Amino acid sequence: MTGPLDIARITAWLDDLVPDRDPVLAALEAEAAETGFPIIGPASGHLCYLLARLTSARRVCELGSGFGYSTAWFARAVKENGGGEVHHTVMDETLSARARAVLGELGVLEPVVFHIGEAVATLNELVGPFDLVFLDIDKDGYPAALPVIEAKLRPGGVLIADNMLRGGRIFDEDDRSLETESIRAFTRMVMESPDWIATVAPVRDGVLVARWEPRPAQRA
Ligand SMILES: C[S@@+](CC[C@H](N)C(=O)[O-])C[C@H]1O[C@@H](n2cnc3c(N)ncnc32)[C@H](O)[C@@H]1O
Q1: Could you identify the atom of ligand 1 that is nearest to the CA of residue 62?
Q2: Which are the contacts of 169, defined by CB distance < 8 A and separation ≥ 6?
């Protein structure tokens, strides 16, 4: 069968290719679909897990963690990499408590450190360097997060950022909303920088994958 390569079709196919997962994780996916809570979903979650495994990441900081779905993928990877830390950050106390319960049920609580507060300010306070930073906060916060991420990633460290396509709105020239403009600005900041090697993988809503390669003068 042939047909157009539309993103919904590709996403469904990629989601289907993700190996069977713990029923707790599958239940979170069903809950997110029902309530509209914005999780990264199976294909992007599995991509995060793969990247964390490929880079043997031991220190991960998530910016915008929700009820722990994406955290679960990173925590599993870090555990399999030999242990370390996965920092979970949200502003909401209830979500943080829910994530703690979920990650406990999944048996991956051990590496997770919970922070309640603004995520970028939290990262700014944490002692680096990190091997991997995952960015999934409110989209208008992406450009201001970048210098903080750069200060905390080790050279050769990885940045993953979700929602780079904003459901296709980045292509709509009439969309001048703060969120869409922020994603456009953030895309330019990373892609035009000589200190990043990056691409946007069109998985689900677009996942930026970037390696921090600061010129010698930039290194701490
Ligand atoms: C897109 S959801 C995260 C989903 C999660 N990464 C996942 O895939 O399971 C973003 C979450 O981070 C919170 N959030 C958004 N901006 C934030 C910020 N600047 N600081 C802390 N939390 C933030 C939101 O309230 C929400 O719970």
Answers
A1: 6
A2: 175, 177, 180
